[in-house]
Amino acid sequence: MHRLFMGLMALILSYSASAAEQKEWTLLVYLNGNNNLDSFGAMNINQMEKVGSSDRVNIVVQWASIANDKVERLYITKDNDTNTVSSKVIEDMGHVDMGDYHSVINFVKWGSEHYPAQHYMLDIWDHGSGWHDLMPGEVTKGISWDETTGNHITTKQFATALSESAKILGQKIDIYGSDACLMAMAELANEVTDSVKIYAGSEETEPGAGWPYDAFLTRWNALPAGATGADVGRVLSEEYAKSYQGGDSKVTFSAFNLEALSAMNAAIKGFADTFRTLSAAELTKVKKVANDSLHFEVGDYIDFVDFITHMKSAKISKFGKSTFTDISTATNDFIVASHAVGYPAAHGMSIWIPTDADTYSQYASDYSQLGFDHETHWGDVAKAIANASSGSDTLTIK
User: Fold this and answer.
1) Which residues fall within 8 angstroms of residue 64, CB to CB, at 6 or more apart?
2) Given this model, what pLDDT does residue 136 score?
């Protein structure tokens, strides 16, 4: 009887999970506070609690806190206490390696089973460093640095995590966002094009406070029924920049339409093909253009549109008007939202442009493994710029 009773209970629980109310959206927040950002994690969850889950949007968080020494899964509900996280703990997981990409996949599986929706947004919250690791000795590597294990999610693992998550959902992730530094890159967007519709992130480093979840969620819930991932991305980009206006921080945020990625890649490939024909003198000129273009905290990450704008002004004859027209059209379709504070030259998408041979050599092998390089041959452009003369050898010294 006991085994029969347990079997019946398992069937009932299974049915209850499968029969859970399907909402319009579920927001899955993979919040890794196993590092020096921990205090901001509680702050951001309290912001979420100002709004809470609604009849349209589930808010589900996998929260790692190094101070609490555990990982919990929460269903976010509204409350008026801005100092204490009070949402119900659905599952206490003990210790979980948040730097293991399998943990992301497991969270998406759990979240979608318990809180099903028509559309999904995945947010990975933590340190980020763009497509490559930072220099040796730096804290941030890839994305989702877990100080308790020393692990992080590499670019390739990041792509796998999102690919496997999309398979679990049975559809592309409607919007993916990095609440982390330096992730709004062409290289990263290419890695997840088969699993994500809208990709959102920051070209620049993010302040510790990250996204303004209360303002963002309020605006999201005010969107009309049937709002798309692009609509959500535009709201997030606007509210993120707005939250830092009038302060000391310089910030950027943007959203990409990955369904327009192939056209952008084709336009960039056309640029790269022409680039191979440049003379040594013209390459020196391009190197100056790269150095004059908008750089971010990591100096080899450069705003692509600003670089192209400077290239157009450089008037190198081999680049015809159609080259720049094609790139402008493609990037306008691809970048569906871009907002910045303190960066008038920021247009939303950064790209790898090393301007010294040592930096290029350090990362060239890894870069050649990226989908973006396969599609555009941008690595050839990076190599040519990095190895071009700075022009100093043309000076006469008395």
Assistant:
1) 31, 32, 33, 34, 41, 70, 71, 96, 98, 146
2) 53
Euclidean distance between CA atoms 73 and 395, whole angstroms: 63
- Residue whose pair of structure tokens reads 């030259």 in the numeric block: 345
| H runs (alpha helix) in the chain | 2-18, 38-51, 101-114, 155-169, 186-191, 213-222, 229-243, 261-275, 280-292, 304-314, 321-334, 357-367, 371-376, 378-387
Closest CA to 249 of 219, 204, 217: 204
Q: Which domains does the chain have, with CATH numbers?
A: 21-260 (3.40.50.11970), 262-393 (no CATH)
Give percent of the chain with pLDDT exceeding 70: 91
Contact between residue 209 and residue 40 where contact means Cβ atoms under 8 Å apart: yes
Separation of alpha carbons 58 and 271, rounded Å = 44
- Round the CA-based radius of gyration of the chain to a whole number and report it: 23
Predicted TM-score (pTM) of the model is 0.92
How far is the C-alpha of 183 from the C-alpha of 173, rounded, in Å? 17
- Return the amino acid letter for 388: A
Identify whether the C-beta of residue 314 lies closer than 8 Å to the C-beta of residue 286. Answer: yes
Tell me the pairing of strands 70-75 and 151-153: unpaired
pLDDT in tens, 157-176: 999 999 999 999 999 999 99
